[in-house]
Amino acid sequence: MKGTENLIIVIGGGLAGLISSILLARKGKSIVLLEKKTFPFHRVCGEYISNEVLDFLKREQLYPEFLDLPKITQFEFSDTGGKTVQTPLDLGGFGISRFALDAWLVGEAQKAGVEVREGTQVSDVNFDEKSNSFSISLSDHTVIRGGFVIGAFGKRSKLDKSLKRSFIEQRSPYIGVKYHINTDFARDTVALYNFHGGYCGINAIEEGKFNLCYLGSRDQLRKFGSVEEMERQVLWKNPILKRIFQESEFLFEKPEVINEINFERKEPVENHILMAGDAAGLITPLCGNGMAMAIHSGKLAAESIIAQKNRNEVESAYTNAWIKEFRQRLWVGRNVQRLFGSGGASVLARNLIDHVPFFAKQIIKSTHGRPF
């Protein structure tokens, strides 16, 4: 096992972890990527990617050209009663499942020389000031030592608790649920349909399939006892969602579900760990931009390590770049979310999109970045 101060350890094999690993390895860095699951696997995710990352992915030969991916140019919104409005997406995006994208990227990481360790749970991360290095304790009782750590371990992790991150002490009222389906729906459209207590997104992905993913209420799940009953009693009150659920072919044996989705503010560097992707900050799903942000933050983390000479410079460069690119987007997302998941607010949002198109364009613009 590599075990020098020059080793860079990436915790988490999501988009931020994979992108940063690939870019660093291509620059000759020694990388170990630790992922607790085994590729490929499904994640609760909207599976729509803004075209702000398209040039970057193609330039780095990380766009999966072999897949026929849908080009998404329209946004459709409904209030809780099922009344809809559409608006064009100026930048647009494409749809791809995390199952397919992560599998493609982990292959590219291995080609670049990344040591990918799957099925490996990190139990603790410690930074030693004296040696200016990290020691990573693994669930198999081994320890890896390295000079830098990128934390790309997702929305909520046991590591957040061991690192005593402030947001982890706050309970979240949200759950996320995801399906893949076959259905009759426009392949150029990403839609967001409100229901009382949450909202549900749908968009095309590869192989003619669609991703159906929603943010719901933990209290409603507790009240109705099961995901299926909650869907019938709550989501189906929106007639569009009722039709989709009744007329579609569901491709998973059971839904992917995650609890405790927290949108509280986080910091991009904590305990000398460069936090990337959702570990650094989770944008509300209604903005449809989490995958693009994860890709971009992985790029920024890698560039900070490559370009700077010492730890203080790396941490400062990454913090400044992350704040410049993402902090305002996250703030807008948290505030705009108040217009979703309730009857009156969702009607107001629909009317604003319909009658004040400048409103919709500004929200989309302020929660998305520029191509890079």
Secondary-structure map:
Layout: E1 8-11, H1 15-26, E2 31-35, E3 48-50, H2 54-59, E4 71-78, E5 84-95, H3 98-112, E6 115-118, E7 122-128, E8 133-138, E9 143-146, E10 148-151, H4 158-162, E11 174-182, E12 189-195, E13 198-204, E14 210-217, H5 218-224, H6 227-233, H7 239-247, E15 249-250, E16 256-259, E17 269-270, E18 273-275, H8 290-307, H9 311-336, H10 343-355, H11 357-366
Parallel strand pairs: 1-2, 1-10, 2-6, 4-12, 10-18
Antiparallel strand pairs: 3-5, 4-5, 7-8, 8-9, 11-14, 11-15, 11-16, 12-13, 13-14, 17-18
Helix pairs in contact: 1-3, 1-8, 5-6, 8-9, 10-11
Number of domains as seen in the coordinates: 2
| SSE order, one letter for each helix or strand | EHEEHEEHEEEEEHEEEEHHHEEEEHHHH
- Number of E-state strands: 18
**Globular, elongated, flat, extended or rod-shaped: what is the shape?**
globular
User: What is the CATH fold-level name of the largest domain?
Assistant: FAD/NAD(P)-binding domain
Task: Give the CATH class of the largest domain.
Answer: Alpha Beta
In the CATH hierarchy, the architecture of the largest domain is: 3-Layer(bba) Sandwich
First and last CA, distance: 36 Å
Gyration radius (Cα, Å) is 20 Å
Characterise this structure.
The chain is α/β, with parallel strands linked by helices. The chain folds into 2 domains: 8-41 and 98-170 and 263-337, FAD/NAD(P)-binding domain (3-Layer(bba) Sandwich); 71-97 and 173-261 and 339-366, D-Amino Acid Oxidase, subunit A, domain 2 (D-Amino Acid Oxidase, Chain A, domain 2), CATH 3.30.9.10. It contains 11 helices and 18 strands. The chain has helices at 15-26, 54-59, 98-112, 158-162, 218-224, 227-233, 239-247, 290-307, 311-336, 343-355, 357-366, and strands at 8-11, 31-35, 48-50, 71-78, 84-95, 115-118, 122-128, 133-138, 143-146, 148-151, 174-182, 189-195, 198-204, 210-217, 249-250, 256-259, 269-270, 273-275. The strands form 3 sheets. Strands 3, 4, 5, 11, 12, 13, 14, 15 and 16 form a 9-stranded mixed sheet that branches. Strands 6-2-1-10-18-17 form a 6-stranded mixed sheet. The longest helix is centred in the last third of the chain and has 26 residues, at 311-336. It is globular and about 60 Å long.
